[in-house]
TrEMBL record:
Reaction catalysis annotation: a 1-acyl-sn-glycero-3-phosphate + an acyl-CoA = a 1,2-diacyl-sn-glycero-3-phosphate + CoA
Acyltransferase among keywords: yes
Similarity field: Belongs to the 1-acyl-sn-glycerol-3-phosphate acyltransferase family.
Biological processes annotated in GO: CDP-diacylglycerol biosynthetic process; phosphatidic acid biosynthetic process
Protein name, entry field: 1-acyl-sn-glycerol-3-phosphate acyltransferase
Phospholipid/glycerol acyltransferase domain residues: 68-183
Pathway this chain belongs to: Phospholipid metabolism; CDP-diacylglycerol biosynthesis; CDP-diacylglycerol from sn-glycerol 3-phosphate: step 2/3; Lipid metabolism
Pfam families xrefs: Acyltransferase
Species this protein is from: Pseudomonas borbori
GO MF annotation terms: 1-acylglycerol-3-phosphate O-acyltransferase activity
GO terms for cellular component: plasma membrane
PANTHER family in UniProt: 1-ACYL-SN-GLYCEROL-3-PHOSPHATE ACYLTRANSFERASE
Length: 240
């Protein structure tokens, strides 16, 4: 019963947050800080409704004062509410073009200045990546990417796609990994207190002076650091 009530409340919240975010986007379309505000609109009430305890240590992310590429593990649709709590200023994300047609959310996602990628069209995807690289270089805006490309359902990290790392090298900006504990298999939304989730940002990985030849090593370094961090957080939550 509690789960059903929560899902009903979350449905109402999703629509209400979508309307507010859409109004924000209409008032100041494509402002790169819209994403942070909209992320909070979705996240803060949702964490309260779901009774999820969030423990964050993201100083490397929030203290960073210039453009960067942020990479995070992607577990489920709840990432919108979990990670929305820590999106920094002037940060946009890369999402599938099909998101644009999702009622309320899709339109505000577009108006918030996020990048919509048509993965089925190689030429269109390449143009979007070039535009995003230019944004990193010249517009004091960071890009948030899920390099796995799809949800891992709380299991081991999937292989990382190259796009985020190619952009970081081309723009000469650092990569900041953001790690979330494996919450999907452990939260219990039919209980009053649904569980605890940890989020940790790792120190920035510099890309200055790297070339595309360094791409495999860069990807492996980032993925290994993130996998080790996630395992450590999972262990800490288990023994807490």
């Amino acid at each position: 019963m509690l789960f059903l009530l929560r899902m009903l409340a979350m449905g109402v919240h999703f629509i209400f947050a979508g309307i507010l975010g859409l109004l924000l986007g209409i008032c100041r379309p494509f402002n790169p800080d819209n994403s942070r505000i909209c992320a909070r609109l979705y996240s803060l009430p949702a964490l309260w409704l779901l009774r999820l305890q969030l423990k964050t240590d993201v100083r490397p992310l929030l203290d960073h004062q210039r453009s960067c590429v942020i990479v995070a593990n992607h577990q489920s649709n709840y990432d919108l509410y979990v990670l929305g709590r820590v999106v920094p200023r002037r940060t946009v994300s890369i999402g599938k073009k099909s998101l644009k047609w999702l009622p309320f959310f899709g339109q505000l996602y577009w108006l918030a200045g996020n990048v919509l990628l048509d993965r089925g069209n190689a030429l269109s995807a390449k143009r979007a990546m070039l535009t995003t690289t230019d944004t990193l270089k010249h517009q004091d805006t960071s890009i948030w990417v899920f390099p796995e490309g799809t949800r891992n359902l709380g299991g081991e990290l999937l292989p990382f796609k190259k796009g985020a790392f190619q952009m970081a090298i081309a723009a000469g900006v650092p990569i900041i990994p953001v790690c979330v504990s494996s919450y999907v298999k452990h939260i219990r939304l039919n209980r009053w207190n649904s569980g605890s989730i940890m989020i940790r940002a790792l120190p920035a990985i510099a890309t200055a002076g790297l070339s595309q030849a360094d791409l495999p090593r860069l990807i492996e370094t980032c993925r290994t650091q993130m996998q080790q961090c996630i395992a450590a957080m999972d262990q800490q939550l288990t023994t807490a």
